[in-house]
Predict the 3D structure of the following.
Amino acid sequence: MDPMPADENGLSCPRSAGPAVDPVRALALPTEKVSILLVDDEPANLDALEAILGDLDESLVRADSGREALRRLLKQDFAVILMDVRMPGMDGFETAVLIRERQRSTYTPIIFLTAAFADETHAARGYSLGGVDYIVKPFEPDILRSKVAVFVELARKTEIVRRQSELLRSVEKREHEKELVGTRAAFLADLERKNEELERNQRILEEKVRELARANEDLEQFAYVASHDLQEPLRMVSSYMQLLSRRMQGRLDKDAEEFIEFARDGAARMRGLIEGLLDYSRAGTRARELEQVDCETVLEQVMIDLSAALQESGAEVTRDRLPTVPGNAIQIATLFQNLIGNAVKFRGAERPRVHVGVEAKDTEWLLMVRDNGIGIEPRHLERIFVIFQRLHTRDQYPGTGIGLAICKKIVERHGGRIWAESSPGRGTTFKFTLPRQGESPGPEQAAGAAAS
Ligand SMILES: Nc1ncnc2c1ncn2[C@@H]1O[C@H](COP(=O)(O)OP(=O)(O)O)[C@@H](O)[C@H]1O
Ligand SMILES: [Mg+2]
């Protein structure tokens, strides 16, 4: 706190404490008394000054030397200083120099009072010190009083301005703080709303996932049972067809033989579909235990299994050094076999070149099977993963449309994602992710992922 009993403009009141400014006080003319410093070595002169200025009803402070005046100025500020020029020790001019040197009193008006040095030079010296007036003794009391009154008035007005600007600052600050508080509150409310919405959506999503998992389980169960039960009557159809064609060999006309051939072909195709369906429904349910699967070993085995197709097409298969991943070896083999098999099957005019690549990401492996085959139109890139969805007839390319659906199921069962990127006519890249060591889902989670 400021120890000064008077404020910057010489008002002899304690400054109001704290940052809050009283607006009434700030806007009214200050009523507190103003301090005036009277400096003279002659007590009689001081008495005379007091008598003349008494009418002003301000606070008069006496100092009987320059030194005493400086001491007073250390304690408080003054609206104006009346100073005798001729004093023993430090004279009025020397005192004024020291007063001007102090920052707080640099601009305090000084009125020099003198009888003895009333010539131009001394007056000029007084002004160059920044004193604002110079009065020769014996002075006219009314003139002196009215001069002092001007400075008193000035001090009061300066004080008003100071208080008003302080008020303005504090009002601005309060407005700003209010604004800040408002903005923060709005922001928090918004955040809370968004959070609630997010939580609600999250709950809905979780419920949907559970529903989907249940529906999928039912469907799998159904597919398994149905395909299993369909196999028996189908076997009967094919074997009696076979029997029929053998028994009637040479006794039927060309048309009849062709019809039997169509029927046998249809039955064979149906068997393929049912087997595919069985494979598909098994892909999610079989072998839920996770083991460390070395993809290098898996791929070598896959290459052996595919050797006929690879040789026939003259395909060249290259690969990066593949990682060991937590998973099921048989399923990962099926995954690679389907993808590489497709890459070779859907080849273009060029000799098929297939590359199996891998990139290590933060928490997962990004694996890819790239080919230089016929490619896939962008609008089909998603539906090829749906069971039985094919983009070609069986005459163009053999198949049942189950392979990618199984791939998707296997990847998701392992906690990853699968998708395809392609430029038609130039080739396709199938990409899938698998969790890295340590971040792999536990068997429980893996089982859950399989069901969804
Ligand atoms: N590497 C590939 N290049 C071009 N098309 C592909 C490729 N892999 C899959 N496809 C398209 O996706 C369809 C579905 O593939 P998939 O499920 O393996 O069934 P299938 O191989 O029995 O046709 C294919 O019929 C084919 O149209
Ligand atoms: Mg396939």
In short: The first strand starts at residue 35 and ends at 39. Residues 338, 341-342, 399, 403 surround magnesium ion (ligand 2) (CB under 6 Å). DSSP finds twelve helices and twelve strands in the chain.
